[in-house]
Design a protein that fits this description.
The complex is a heterodimer of chains A (456) and B (189). Chain A is of the alpha/beta class. Chain A is built from 19 helices and eleven strands. A four-stranded mixed β-sheet of chain B has the order 2-1-3-4, covered by helices on one side. Classes of the chains: A alpha/beta (456), B alpha+beta (189).
């Protein structure tokens, strides 16, 4: 069993209530933080090596140290707009441990000298919004929020507010726009939120899991946190495992577990769902490149691949991927990569805010072309067309949604070009959406070889 | 909910209540004031998204122009500022919807666990196409993007709640429960 930081008390009955949470040592980090200076807390977080758990993996301590000192009004905003396909860890955390999030928000607000902080949760998690609302009321009632917290002279107001169904609001500047009651159009950076954020004030936006790690770091010290994991991947991380595995769910891992162990061991995913073999995996949420089975457990160099930021991206996008938000989606050989790419492209087209032309138009084209390939209307040149479209989106948009739409398409073509070609050459075979369930790629690939031999 | 006023019953409108075709109970008005109090002076517009959820919940799950205008008035902003927000976010409905809307997650992870089959099953059972409302106005089937329940697939959202690990049998039972009025759509404030 690996070390548990966030889920240590998850099985304590009633842990979602204030009384039980407090009895297990809850809110102790606030008491400790109130006796520390903000700089001391930031230093501990820097020492911990904690990296943003929302997907980008940016060092949290560094992000905090950028906060504008010229304007004394700071805000901390918790990004609970979890909507990356494959990711459901934040919802689990907030449902079970609402007070840990509040504790983390208070402790982090002390470090950032923020006196008005918000949790922005996606609108679909309405029942979780209510849980947080009640938990915040409990925290106020017990003197952890409001004026002069526990006689320290520190004031903090914390509120929860919700979105209404927009993936783009997970992007920090879009989230701030949405929190201000506007459309979720990302802002041009710079200025970064740390300088001009919510209401024009310096603002830090952090993921739920990142904020929940802070109490442990304050209590045990940054160095203890850094001892867990390997290299620059410190601490534990929650992985949301889904797809064709035996035990989908949320798992807390130390950042050093081999990918093979994670998929196959009973402690985690428990192996494949049925006797159908593993075909591919998206290891960090829909935006990251898909990996074929042969590159999942081992890197291109033949080394064991680990669940760490570095190992997962070993080989760059050519033979690697990213750990991203930890949305670990496993596909067996019944799944069609072309269909899956169409599914993701439809998602990004639906979720593009429409502000930048390459993304607004490009995601639409990606969806249309992948649709026609999947439904047996594709042309040979469509594969190069897809490549061309994704290349023209990547890097040409205000926010990373454009990149996120481009990467899955690029990776699918890079690793599974043969499946796209199969869809073009054997349109009758792919008309039924379950074509690979009846005849997996391994069984039909001889058709391609036969056709090519005849052409020669 | 007895405090609800019906859309066409003008005799019953309270001074603090509806204008045009919108229903705002005293309870909701109090709730709106609470939501506004969470934001600094001059920044009350921040409460817009949350208020729209409350108003939509009280108005048969959709937002009429009157409803949006009322929200603009309550917040002291221009109606266009409300319209542009309502049209941006997928959870706000600008036209009437079925009483029970089955919003199936149709994104990749749910698809790997049979979401497409289940959507087909449900549509066939109810005799509708995706997006259509049944003739009795009771049901509507929609495909929506990832709802963050990938490990509990296939699933759907019904009102404020998720129905997870669905099977055709569970779907049958859910439909029966809806018909019998046993399904609670809103989470308690």
């Amino acid at each position: 069993m690996g070390k548990k930081i966030l889920l240590e008390h998850i099985n304590v009955p009633g842990i979602e209530t204030y009384e039980v949470y407090r009895k297990t040592g809850g809110y102790a980090s606030v008491e400790k933080a109130l006796k520390m200076t903000p700089t001391e807390i930031v230093e501990e977080v820097k020492k911990s090596g904690l990296r943003g758990r929302g997907g980008a993996g940016f060092p949290t301590g560094m992000k905090w140290s950028f906060i504008g000192k010229n304007n004394p009004t700071h805000h901390l905003v918790c990004n609970a707009d979890e909507s990356e396909p494959g990711t459901f860890k934040d919802r689990y955390l907030m449902e079970k441990l609402p007070h840990l999030l509040i504790e983390g928000m208070i402790t982090s607000s002390i470090a950032l000298e923020a006196h008005l902080s918000y949790i922005y949760i996606r609108g679909e998690y309405m029942w979780v919004y209510r849980i947080l609302e009640r938990a915040i009321n409990e925290a106020y009632a017990n003197g952890w929020l409001g004026k002069n917290i526990k006689g320290s002279g520190f004031d903090l107001d914390l509120h929860v507010t919700c979105g209404a169904g927009a993936y783009i609001c997970g992007e920090e500047t879009a989230l701030i726009e949405s929190l201000e009651g506007k459309r979720g159009n990302p802002r041009i950076k710079p200025p970064f939120p740390a300088v001009v954020g919510l209401y024009g004030n310096p603002t830090v936006v952090n993921n739920v899991e990142t904020i929940m790690d802070v109490p442990w770091i304050v209590m045990n010290g940054g160095e203890e946190f850094a001892k867990i994991g390997i290299g620059k991947s410190t601490g534990t991380k929650l992985i949301s495992a889904s797809g064709n595995i035996k035990k989908p769910g949320v798992y807390e891992i130390e950042l050093n577990v081999p990918v093979e162990e994670f998929v196959m061991s009973d402690e985690y995913c428990g192996g494949m769902q049925t006797d159908r073999p593993l075909k591919a995996c998206v290891p960090g949420g829909s935006s990251v490149p898909i990996l074929p089975a042969e590159l999942l457990f081992k890197t291109a160099k033949g080394e064991q691949r680990l669940m760490t930021y570095e190992s997962m991206s070993d080989g760059g996008f050519a033979t690697g991927s990213m750990i991203g938000s930890g949305g670990f989606i496993v596909y067996d050989d019944r799944q069609c990569i072309v269909r899956n790419t169409w599914n993701f492209s439809r998602f990004y087209h639906h979720e593009s805010c429409g502000q930048c032309s390459p993304c607004r138009e490009g995601t639409g084209w990606l969806e249309k072309v992948t649709w026609r390939l999947e439904h047996g209307f594709g042309r040979e040149e469509d594969i190069d067309l897809l490549w061309d479209i994704q290349r023209k989106i990547e890097g040409n948009t205000i926010c990373p949604l454009g990149d996120a739409a481009a990467w899955p398409v690029a990776a699918a073509i890079r690793h599974f070009r043969h499946e796209f070609e199969y869809h073009v050459r054997f349109p009758e075979k792919v008309k039924d959406r379950k074509h690979f369930e009846y005849e997996p790629w391994e069984k039909v690939k001889y058709l391609m070889a036969k056709q090519e031999a005849m052409a020669v | 909910m007895t405090e609800k006023l019906s859309n066409d019953d003008k005799s019953n409108s309270s001074p603090s209540g509806r204008l045009g075709g919108v229903i705002l109970s005293d309870k909701t008005i109090a709730r709106i004031e609470l939501l506004k109090s969470r934001f600094p002076e001059g920044k009350k517009k921040s409460a817009l998204l949350t208020i729209l959820h409350e108003v939509q919940d009280e108005n048969n799950d959709w937002l009429s122009v009157e409803a949006m205008d009322k929200v603009a008035e309550v917040l002291g902003i221009l109606p266009i500022e409300v319209y542009e927000v309502v049209s941006f976010y997928s959870m706000y409905n600008q036209k009437p919807v079925g009483k029970y809307v089955f919003e199936f997650c149709r994104t990749s992870c749910c698809v790997t666990r049979g979401a497409e089959d289940l959507m087909d099953y449900t549509c066939k059972k109810l005799g509708v196409e995706m997006g259509e409302v049944t003739a009795d106005g009771l049901f509507q089937v929609k495909g929506v993007e990832c709802l963050g329940a990938c490990g509990y697939a296939p699933m759907l959202q019904l009102g404020d709640f998720y129905q997870e690990f669905l099977t055709p049998e569970k779907m049958d039972a859910l439909i029966e429960d809806c018909k019998a009025g046993k399904i609670q759509k809103l989470s308690a404030v």
